[in-house]
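Format is sequence with structure; example below:
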Amino acid sequence: MNETDNRKDKENEVASDVEPICLAGGSLCQNSEWPKPTLIDGTSNSTTINSRDWESGLYAGLMLSLDKYKERLKEERAYKLNARPREIDIRIIDQEYVGDDRMDNAIAYLFERHNLIELKDPYEELDIDVVWTGISYAAQYKGQGYDDVIKKSGVDIIPMKDVTITFLRVSKPRDLFKQMKNNGYGIEEKFPGVYYITGIADIKIQVVVGRELEGEEFVPIRIQKKNAADEDVRTFLKLIEGLKDIHTKNLADSVMQISISENEGLYNRLLQEDPGMCKALRELMNDQIEKEKSEAVNEAVNNNNEYIARKMIEIGDPLDKISKVTSVTIERLEELSNMLVGTTEIRG
């Protein structure tokens, strides 16, 4: 049997084994071929907190909320500070920066040319020391002496007035705000959910509370909170309906993974009330479905090929011949051969 035939057989087997439900523990979308979302496993929230990729969810939500300015803003994840093993979660460069041209967006309104973003999940501490760490990152960024945007180096090549820091978290850091007030720092709610911090350092700082943001552009962030609003979820599904751009679909998928994991009951109820939502979710997850199918096929094919290789080793076929027949590497065949010899010696 060659590898092509083997793959076709396994594709048929895998396609027939795909579990036909949308949400774990539910009986919705019974005719869909949609495997369970990775983050929904039917267990309680307390057992899945650590498995959730909050950083990707917040990153995706932020980028979608800034979609209006995607041609103007250039983002870079995990920006490295010099050669040090320290990374800023996101760096966003305003490529059309002129100093007083403010964007019509509650988060981006503060932005200057260089904007550093720190993402914090609601279960992660956001205290005064975390803020000072962010300030130290900004100081290192300013002090590196080279602006890779304009490709120039020199003293004060990045003026501190051109740098901002944003701390983004879905939930409100009440203890942080209390501590800041006790320390005499200023806290101004510039927009709903957007708090400007003053008096702590000579740099523009804002703390963004995702659950308090208002406006349709921030739906991708708001639906990641617990007890998300029905209307926000419906709005998001309408916004992403028919998405073609792969990058945007991936962002939407990251948002949905967190939103579903935080609001499983809500999604089950909405799907019961509006079965049409299932189609929208399936379209969004289609790329992930195909990827999971492909991975399952590859695993099945590899396992089958190794089974054949083992049998050929047992009857004494040379490894180069086995490799040609099964596409298993010589190195792997040597490992299998040694394993079989060890098993035989134990039995003997």
Q: What stands out?
A: The chain is about 45% helix and 15% strand. Residues 37-276 form one domain. The longest strand covers residues 73-80.
